[in-house]
């Protein structure tokens, strides 16, 4: 192992041990109740992270638009939402738990303005904001942060999206979601939004233990825990995590969800500031949910979506106990064996630090860093061609071919009636998306120096800063093609025999690589991206006015190489001494590598103004220009040139935004209305597209975002709606798409969360929905709108113990988030592939407050 990796691992182990030791010391000293509580109240509260942002509102009933909430994300210094010219929503830990969200991206669906296609399970979600496009995958224009530092530098790295490396648990104190252009000057590669997951820091002594158990077909169990408190008058700690076990939200009929997470921090207050150490260790396995076979009939403008007989669209999976292993050649020419059950395998060893120092004369120095060792794998079946079993057999083995079971209880048995195979007579040519992620390590550092001013003419702040990051992106794609039955559960692999009896497949394997689907998708790249960004910001308050502005100069340097397996050779992959038909054409790396060697820079800005009419009413305006620097999606034809250089318009995508609105607050109601406009440049690649994998275009979007809440007695209602009018305004590759609506962009998305408390009972729901959208940019086939309802009821058994029952997707609604094999039109037989929101899941939770 590399010495640096060893150092990281040993440091993390020792630090976690120290945290655990500290927790036992604190609990042992809990019998002296006066000491820790006095210490907590006496400790100077000078930090600008966890505590300031949440503790002031701890005793208030939370709502989605608490305009007096202090926020720290996307702003030079903490400020209330009412007094700032940024659009921000805050979701506290209690709301996260009661909303029934299953992962980080699922949580974002409850926040106005954010478009989150959370249907992939524990990761791989597509996330955007306010009409910015989702042209491929991930969250290209949105940055995920933990305690103000990026989880990954880029939000759309293929098969390694940041939500995969971020797991929500009891450690999360609250989430701040900043939408709009202000994020451009406070974070790199985040022109659309910053989603900051802020962890607890032990300022309040206590913790929780919670056990969640799935009911019915949802066979999952998860244990969450956290605890924190003061160690002395100036030192406090917090730690927590979870362990999980089960078959996932869709029943794979094997253990597909396992592992856990441990996070912690220690904070020491100093005169005028604080020091903090953060730690994270994550090692989890979760199933990958990709598109599945589906029936779409009717017309393009009014389609009818249903399940195929024998395969349930919402709960069915192509993963199976009988499709559990894969062998392929990696980039070094060695056979690599994969356990398909691993799905998303995510490992994170991270250590971070934060310090705030008063330098005197109203000057403050703030330092943050995070060093993360990230690695894992992405393995999931993707149906590329679903047809009658016999027609697929004939396409593989020639006319007159026949089928036999390759795996399962009937392995070796000939299929005499393929027309009724699996209850539908269908089979799927399935590409196994198999990607190793040996090195997704990143280092980030943010240093800022700020000063406060208070004069007769007004008061303000001035901040200078410097951001540096290094992001490694090392991936090995080794995809293969299989043939399997179309069944909701326990699908079997199939072998094909020619009319003469020759075996044309190998234990269900049709081909090494994915010929006919993605010819160059066996690939390897070793890339390193370095970001450097000096920035400056200023705020000025005079009377009812508050002005703010900032500049950021981002520069990226990309280096490394990439190569595709673009040659075919005969290879005995399984080393059994015999050459099967698939082994006669194995993709191998025979060509020279291509370089990555470029540097790009761009100046970003954001200027805003807020006018406070009175304590309960304010207006604001903002104009911004941000940028997203492209990374791995430029490779393999995505825009990088043969010498490794990248043209400016391809390497840097600029986003210009304008927004303005009104904020209104009373004792029982809050309302935040924002009008927005965005012009977006996009360069991208989508290897799963059946239309055109490369994208080079401009978009224009405008709309309005509503966010509000009502609190009366025991009843509260929080929610929002976003209207977006978006169009493609230029396209260098497919000019016929100009004037069309971007794929999967609905006119309206909405979310509402009513709740009611009565004695020891709490009732609530989250209603999330979208109107119809187009499945692809050519604007042919429509994806119907849908509404998903999640509900919960909880009962406080006593002051420390609560039991709750939650139901996600109560009415078992079908909600398509993408259509894949034929996104332009309804097919003649109605068979297609698509991905839907998850079906109904029910679970019980027991929670004990320590």
List keywords for this structure.
8 helices; mainly beta; five-stranded mixed beta sheet; disordered N terminus; 25-stranded antiparallel beta sheet; 47 strands; about 850 residues
What this model shows, in words?
The chain is mainly beta and 850 residues long. 8% of the residues lie in helices and 52% in strands. It contains eight helices and 47 strands. The strands form nine sheets. The protein has a 25-stranded antiparallel β-sheet that branches. The longest helix has 26 residues. The N terminus is likely disordered.
| Strand-pairing-aware structural class | mainly beta
The CA-CA distance between the termini, in Å, is 40 Å
State the shape: globular
**Secondary structure: number of strands:** 47
Percentage beta strand: over 45%
Low-confidence stretches: 1-49, 51-64
From the alpha carbons, calculate the radius of gyration and give it in angstroms: 27 Å
Could you give a short description of this structure?
This protein has 850 residues and is mainly beta. The protein has a 25-stranded antiparallel beta sheet that branches. Strands 3-8-9-6-7 form a five-stranded mixed beta sheet. A four-stranded antiparallel beta sheet has the order 16-15-46-45, with no helix packed on it.
Outline the secondary-structure elements:
Layout: H1 3-28, H2 34-42, H3 50-54, E1 70-71, E2 79-80, E3 87-92, H4 93-98, H5 104-108, E4 114-117, E5 126-129, E6 142-146, E7 149-150, E8 172-179, H6 183-186, E9 193-199, E10 206-215, E11 220-230, E12 235-246, E13 257-270, E14 273-286, E15 292-298, E16 303-306, E17 325-329, E18 335-339, E19 344-360, E20 363-388, H7 389-397, E21 402-405, E22 414-415, E23 426-439, E24 442-455, E25 458-477, E26 480-485, E27 494-497, E28 509-512, E29 523-542, E30 545-564, E31 567-569, E32 586-588, E33 594-614, E34 617-629, H8 648-651, E35 652-665, E36 669-685, E37 694-712, E38 715-731, E39 748-758, E40 761-770, E41 773-774, E42 782-783, E43 786-796, E44 801-808, E45 816-819, E46 831-836, E47 841-849
Parallel strand pairs: 6-9
Antiparallel strand pairs: 1-2, 3-8, 4-5, 6-7, 8-9, 10-11, 10-47, 11-12, 12-13, 13-14, 14-19, 15-16, 15-46, 17-18, 19-20, 20-23, 20-24, 21-22, 21-27, 23-25, 23-26, 24-25, 25-29, 26-28, 29-30, 30-33, 31-32, 33-34, 34-35, 35-36, 36-37, 37-38, 38-39, 39-40, 40-43, 41-42, 43-44, 44-47, 45-46
